[in-house]
Amino acid sequence: CLAAFAAAAARLERAGGAADLLERADLLAAAERAAGEAAARRASGEILAAAWLAAPGPDGVVPDRLAALDRALADQRRTLADARAALAAALEARWAALLAAAADAVPGDVVPIARWFADGRLALFLTHLADRLREAAETSAGDLDLAGLEGFAHLAAWAAIAAEEPLAATPAGRAIRLFAIAREWPAGGSEADPPAIDSSAPWAEELLLRLALAGPASPLPGPPGTLAVYRSTTPEGSVTWQVDRVLPDPDPPAGSTWSRIVEERYHDASGRPLGERRLRLVQQEKRFFEEGVRRVEILDLSRLDQRFAMAAWTAPAGGDLPPVLGVGAADLALFRRRRAEAGAEPCLVRRRGAAATWYSASLGLVRHEDPGRIVRELCFASRPDQ
């Protein structure tokens, strides 16, 4: 064991001036393991049975080899303590330089040092990086300046690290992931499991809504089997009902992310049928189209430089639905209870002229208002996967 330590210590001493601090850290670890094995054998008493302890020296006298061994082990501990202190000082200096240049820092340089210290400093580095991202790309009004992210060459790699536990649960980890998603968004990047946010910045809340609406669990219009009931009211007080059922599309258009058939049925205030129609809703990456008599783009989420208004929507709390609409009292009560528990839903508001359409992350289209003509509002919704 002493021989193994001596060899490891010699390698460490030869690397004492090496520029590669992590190589020195590996050599120090090897020397510490060898020293630990020697100390363990001494502590176990195993060594007391060794015949060489009682063997006389050249002068015929039996030296106190055990005391000499203990002195050697003490020398080992001092040597290793000095080496560890010197390496820690060098790594601290390197860490300070990396922290000062966080925007350009390579994860491969930062993470091993943080793991060597094992004192939680990687989370602190992410906090520092998140602060630099905000300074570079977040305006005083809470908007996003995508050009400010261009200097962060390793943002995608940092986002991958920030997505790992326990860093994923930290405010800095979530912020870094959102900035990375924002930078990739124009090119088609997204995330199936977007992070929650701690920031009140409008751009972050809007981006999360875009992610939900364009993601695989999009409520626009929801999977086959989804049902939505809307109440439409004119300025004169005339009421009509619209019931939307989502059906699979047997012949989706080429190039679509997904396609659904929506069956719309219309009823007057009492529930008397007024007619029905079928149309196709198509998603192509981050754009949505309605195909009926003609093809109309209803929502474009692809460009972050085209901002949406934001609003909070609250579901109507009362009122009966005509029985012919097919919504049971228990289902309606459950929907209203869940909406009341959830509180106001943040919505993207797409404006086209005077008209405004509201979209929530969980319910899709919840409100459409065309001043002077009509207001249509969601009164009930159900999905087969919820």
Brief characterization of the structure:
The chain is α+β, with helices and mostly antiparallel strands and 386 residues long.
Structure description:
- With 386 residues, this protein is an alpha+beta fold.
- Helices cover 39% and strands 22% of the residues.
- Strand 10 (364-370) and strand 11 (374-382) form a beta hairpin.
- The longest helix has 36 residues, at 65-100.
- It is built from 9 helices and 11 strands.
- Strands 6-5-4-3-2-1-11-10-9-8-7 form an 11-stranded antiparallel sheet, sandwiched between helices.
Record keyword descriptors for this entry.
386 residues; alpha+beta; 11-stranded antiparallel sheet; 22% strand
List the helices and strands and how they pair.
Layout: H1 2-14, H2 21-44, H3 65-100, H4 107-117, H5 121-137, H6 155-162, H7 171-184, H8 202-214, E1 227-233, E2 239-248, E3 258-268, E4 273-284, E5 287-291, E6 295-300, E7 309-313, H9 329-342, E8 345-352, E9 355-360, E10 364-370, E11 374-382
Order of helices and strands: HHHHHHHHEEEEEEEHEEEE
The coarse overall form would be elongated
Strand tally is 11
Gyration radius (Cα, Å) is 33 Å
